[in-house]
């Protein structure tokens, strides 16, 4: 049985003023039937973890360095995130892959570091529009999955987020059939590599998840939740997404 996960990625948005949104989220979901996670900018993690203490809200980072410590100006280690109160870290987001030239191998090393620090790693994969137009989305995502997920991963400490690059921040989403086909492929690939435990990995969909489409996305087989960008910034938008996921968890 895979626990549903509603994950919010605030990206480079939010100052302390945004804690009001986290508090509103906690107030609206005091005993959620799914996990709720916010990944704010690193500067807010420690204070958000304090706000979340004693509540079901989970807190995560958006990236970490692969090394435990050292001369890496501006970077943050997985252990530092954990000490600040993070329980999760998003890795290999397409914006990191594009802006910081992160390769699958870099993502895998970061994931190893995250697991060593006791964090759950949310490993992101997803094709560009050109790759989908060329019909190579399964090849691309298969390669990313093989290269980015470490051998030591288990369903308990790694979550996979399928985020087609062309759906992120665009208001466009794949069809239900396209999401279902990719999630089925991810599941089969994980089972082929990890055996029975491949069934334990949670598969999130990400890319323009909104209150208006969450319910239909969560009804797709093998979608265990969402990684939400823009619609996670405001509690008014994220609450109905969480509620849609809770309804889905109820039906199982
Ligand atoms: P979006 O972002 O929901 O704003 O499309 C999703 C993501 O990048 O994780």
Structure overview:
With 252 residues, this protein is an alpha/beta fold. The chain has one domain: TIM Barrel (Alpha-Beta Barrel). It has ten helices and eight strands. It has helices at 19-28, 42-52, 78-84, 94-99, 104-116, 129-133, 137-148, 176-194, 214-218, 235-250; strands spanning 5-9, 35-39, 57-61, 88-91, 120-125, 158-162, 202-206, 225-228. An eight-stranded parallel β-barrel has the order 1-2-3-4-5-6-7-8, surrounded by seven helices. Helix 2 links the parallel strand 2 and strand 3 (57-61). The radius of gyration is 17 Å and the shape is globular. It starts with a strand and ends with a helix. The mean pLDDT is 97. The structure holds 2-phosphoglycolic acid (PGA). 2-phosphoglycolic acid binds next to strand 8.
- Ligand list: 2-phosphoglycolic acid
CATH topology: TIM Barrel
Total DSSP helices = 10
Number of discrete domains: 1
Strand % is 15-25%
Largest β-sheet summary: 8 strands, parallel, barrel
Give the strand order, joined by hyphens, for the main sheet: 1-2-3-4-5-6-7-8
- Computed Rg: 17 Å
Secondary-structure element pattern, one letter each:
EHEHEHEHHEHHEHEHEH
Low-confidence region ranges? none
Tell me what the CATH architecture is. Alpha-Beta Barrel
Outline:
The protein is an alpha/beta fold and 252 residues long. It contains ten helices and eight strands. The chain has a single domain, classed as TIM Barrel, CATH 3.20.20.
Quickly list its features.
single chain, 252 residues, alpha/beta, TIM Barrel, 8-stranded parallel β-barrel, 10 helices, binds 2-phosphoglycolic acid
């Amino acid at each position: 049985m895979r626990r549903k996960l509603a994950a919010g990625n605030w990206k480079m948005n939010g100052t302390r003023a945004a804690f009001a949104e986290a508090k509103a989220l906690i107030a609206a979901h005091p005993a959620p039937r799914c996990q709720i996670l916010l990944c704010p900018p690193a500067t807010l993690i420690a204070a958000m973890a304090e706000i979340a203490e004693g509540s079901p809200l989970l807190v995560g980072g958006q990236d970490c360095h692969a090394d435990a410590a050292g001369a890496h100006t501006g970077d943050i280690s997985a252990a530092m995130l954990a000490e600040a109160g993070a329980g999760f870290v998003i890795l290999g987001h397409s914006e990191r892959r594009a802006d910081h030239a992160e390769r699958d191998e870099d993502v895998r090393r970061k994931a190893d570091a995250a697991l060593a620090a006791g964090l759950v790693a949310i490993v992101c994969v997803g094709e560009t529009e050109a790759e989908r137009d060329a019909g190579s989305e399964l090849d691309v995502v298969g390669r990313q999955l093989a290269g980015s997920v470490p051998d030591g991963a288990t369903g308990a400490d790694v979550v996979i987020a399928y985020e087609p690059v062309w759906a992120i921040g665009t208001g466009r989403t794949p069809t239900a059939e396209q999401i279902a086909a990719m999630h089925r492929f991810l599941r089969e690939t994980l089972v082929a590599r990890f055996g029975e435990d491949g069934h334990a990995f949670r598969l999130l969909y990400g890319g323009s998840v909104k209150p208006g489409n969450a319910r239909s996305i969560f009804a797709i087989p093998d979608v265990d939740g969402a990684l939400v960008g823009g619609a996670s910034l405001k509690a008014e938008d994220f609450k109905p997404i969480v509620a849609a996921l809770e309804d889905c968890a109820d039906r199982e």
